[in-house]
Specification:
Blueprint lengths: L4 H13 L2 H13 L3 H6 L17 H9 L1 H6 L7 E4 L2 E4 L11 E3 L6 E4 L3 E6 L5 E7 L2 E3 L2 H5 L5 H15 L10 H10 L5 E7 L2 E7 L7 E3 H14 L12 E4 L2 E4 L17 E2 L6
Parallel strand pairs: 3-5, 4-8
Antiparallel strand pairs: 1-2, 5-6, 6-7, 8-9, 9-10, 11-12, 11-13
């Protein structure tokens, strides 16, 4: 049974409602078929066999495909191998690449990453390969025009997923990216150790960039809870150590005081800790 454009719109809404783990499973299953998003988006309502001559795609039309795809589908302007925009047909296979001159770099300002809907972004990896993204619906993805044209790239998908996860909840980043990979992506984007934030559209999350054993990107509210234990509230954990014991925290020495707390500045890497010998 052939799926109509209206069915497809429902499926797209469903995909957006899934949580990150479910979306990840759907994407990876598509990768295994070497079709990824292209295969799930390219089944449209069937039209007659009469073809309109393929038109050269302008920047305006390309932007509509990448940022207003829902509108095109609602208007039933999606064919199996093409789009109809402003009365002209544009074949999927002929859709051009996004010119990098139209893209902004994924780069932090004051340790903040802010990516806005309706814009293109690029990232050059350490091998010199350039990855192009479109920001739409509070996510960055490889542009639809590239996906429909068959230019899906697994590495581009992985980079996009990294930033999309951080804009929502990076708790499980270590399940998908090694410590070195996370540090590389953050460093290349100009994020330095300490507090940072990632915002994509309306989705924003704040973190602490740590070299400790709690992960590279620790959510700020988790940092605050641990800092409160070290500097304000104290913990039964420190009862096992002599007053005056020296702890290495963030590469610096801090002494356990009589209240079994630490005079430690806010913003120190409290997850990078070397404990002294315990009380015998």
């Amino acid at each position: 049974m052939r799926i109509t454009a209206n069915n497809l719109l429902g499926n797209m809404s469903l995909i957006r409602s899934l949580n990150g783990h479910e979306r990840k499973n759907m994407h990876m299953e598509s990768y295994n078929k070497d079709s990824f998003i292209h295969s799930s988006l390219s089944v449209f309502q069937t039209y007659g066999r009469t073809q309109i001559r393929s038109s050269k795609c302008s920047d305006e039309v390309l932007d509509k495909i990448n940022f207003k795809l829902d509108d095109i589908l609602r208007q039933k302007r999606g064919r199996e191998h093409s789009f109809i925009v402003n009365g002209k047909e544009y074949m999927h296979k002929d859709l051009p690449r996004i010119d990098s001159s139209k893209c902004m770099n994924i780069k932090a300002v004051n340790n903040k990453i802010v990516l806005n809907n309706g814009h293109y972004y690029n990232y050059k990896d350490r091998k010199g390969k350039e990855h192009i993204f479109a920001c739409v619906n509070d996510r960055i993805e490889q542009p639809y025009s590239d996906q429909f044209a068959g230019r899906q790239d697994k590495n581009t998908y992985q980079i996009a997923k990294f930033w999309n996860m951080l804009s929502r909840d990076g708790t499980y980043m270590s399940l998908y990216y090694s410590k070195a990979e996370q540090q590389s992506l953050l460093n290349d984007a100009g994020i330095s150790e300490g507090f940072f934030s990632v915002q994509i559209g309306s989705k924003k999350q704040e973190y602490f960039y740590s070299n400790g054993n709690a992960g590279v990107a620790v959510r700020k509210f988790e940092y605050d809870a641990v800092y409160d234990m070290f500097a304000k509230r104290g913990s039964a954990l420190f009862n096992e150590y002599d007053i005056g014991s020296v702890f290495m925290i963030g590469g610096k020495e801090y002494i356990l005081n009589e209240d079994r707390k630490f005079d430690i500045p806010y913003g120190e890497d409290i997850f990078d800790v070397q404990f002294p010998k315990r009380v015998q």
